[in-house]
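Q: I'm a student working through a structural biology exercise. My instructor gave each of us a protein and asked us to get a predicted structure, then write a short paragraph describing it. Mine is Sugar ABC transporter permease. I'm not confident about reading structure output yet, so if you can add a plain explanation after the tokens, that would really help. Here is the sequence I was given:
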Amino acid sequence: MTTTQVPTPARTAQTPPVKRPKRQREGAAWVFLSPWVLGACLLTLLPMAVSLYLSFTDYDLFNSPNWVGLRNYTQMFTEDPRYWRSVGATLTYVVIAVPLQLGLALVVALALKNMKRGRAFYRSAFYAPSLLGASMSVALVWRALFNEGGTVDNLFGTGGWIFKPGWALVTVALLTVWQFGAPMVIFLAGLQQIPGELYEAAEVDGASGWRQFLSITVPMLSPVIFFNLVLQTIQAFQVFTPAFAVSGGKGGPADSTLFYTLYLYDRGFVASHMGYASAMAWVLLIVIGAVTAVLFRTSRSWVFYASDTEGGVR
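A: Happy to help. First, here is the predicted structure for Sugar ABC transporter permease. I'll explain a few features afterward.
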């Protein structure tokens, strides 16, 4: 007796995957995010909260904080002439160092873009100072170069730039300009994204190299210029190591290199006025935020994005 088997219908679709509950998926995400969250809370948010509290106190690192309200802020703005000299030195440094650094970085990036051989070598060589320039050892070498009897003095007979109030700040600014490698690499990446057809069309129309630079390179590179400008401006306001090394931690001569962060360090860790230093830190944070907001606001008139036909930020 033969048995007839009924064929089983073929599966036309795969079994849908089992979805985990939303709460379970979120729990797994928080497990992986927990190291960053703990680090942000313990190493950033908590110290910021403590610093904000200390800015309203008289604290010397050894005794309990004594609440003084706004006295640190009023003393800072009305009774401390060195504070305003540090503000002036920092603003002068930012105005000198940032444009020179970005200008040199752009010039070198343009040269490397058209280089056929050795581009990788020169790109690495120009980038190296950005890795070394923030170290104390390089800053001390820089001080020796511009010191009396140093290499620069022997070549030009300057008598030592670091002992002249008019040139000591320039010495620190030149060290920053020398570290143009990081913005240069960013500029080079941006230049390589500009379509070559634009330059070919401009050449057909008879545009000169300078005209191509102004009408094609600058507008197409404006987002990268804006990015580097914001980044380097924020870093310039926080400069510390070069000024500390060149001036020996004193901000001299005649407070010409008394940058804001150097004076903050002096008030907090040398004079043990940690409450006053905390107030200075919060003022610096507010100023950097305000300057960054102004840069973003003004970028509407000169930063061009490909998605914006009018050339402004929307």
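A: Here are two points you could use in your paragraph. The chain is about 70% helix and 0% strand. The longest helix spans residues 22-54. It's a good idea to check both against the output above yourself.
Q: Great, thank you!
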